[in-house]
Amino acid sequence: TSIGGQAFSVSSLVNPNAALTAVHFECSKVGDPTVLLSATNLVSAGGGPVTISSEFDQLALSTCYTCRVIALNAGGTTSATQTVCTLPIAPSVTTSAATGVSPTTATLAGSVVPNGSATVASFQFGTTPAMGNSTTPSSIGGGTAPVPFTQPISGLLPNTLYYYRAMATNAAGQGTGGVAVLTTRQTPPQPTVVSPTNSLTIA
User: What is the pLDDT of residues 98-156, one digit of tens each?
Assistant: First the structure.
């Protein structure tokens, strides 16, 4: 059996025993009555044992399926069963434009597709491409649709270029978005107060 994130192939050794034999596979989620059927393969009567394989795709991530191989010929029907589980895959991550940029704060933004496994997301940031600072990871669930997320950062230097990127981790590994940049705003100048001068007016 070959297993991927949303696909697997199943195979079985079938001996037609001198009769034309039709072979197919049936797979269903554990506890779900919906059955996925493969195409039917014909095994000629004159051959010996033959390996029959079929691939199932567009499956749910991190999910177990019960699969049966069914062989039918004039002598009757034989079947065998095995359980196959798809694998989780790492999250897909996109880095988005930062908002609320001030001289010392900003809100970083990104989007994550958890790909069916419980996922936490965070940001790396810093004044060099190596970044070196990270926000605290937050949970964004385990769905299959994009999840936007934001996190504020503070203590930044005014009028400074910062690099940042979104990142996320689940049971299958880590995904990272592209590196983006922001420039903090310059601190506005303090107001200037001019002391009044004494003047004397003579009428």
Answer: 999 999 999 999 999 998 889 999 999 999 999 999 999 999 999 889 999 999 999 99
* Alpha-carbon span 105 to 90, nearest angstrom: 30
Count CA within 13 A, CB hemisphere, residue 56. 26
pTM of the model: 0.66
Give the 3-state secondary structure of residue 103.
coil
CA distance 69 to 165: 47
CA–CA distance, 87 with 64 (Å, rounded to integer): 9
CA dihedral angle for residue 43, residue 46, residue 50, residue 53, rounded to 10 degrees = -10
In the 8-state DSSP scheme, what is residue 172?
T
What's the DSSP call for residue 33? -
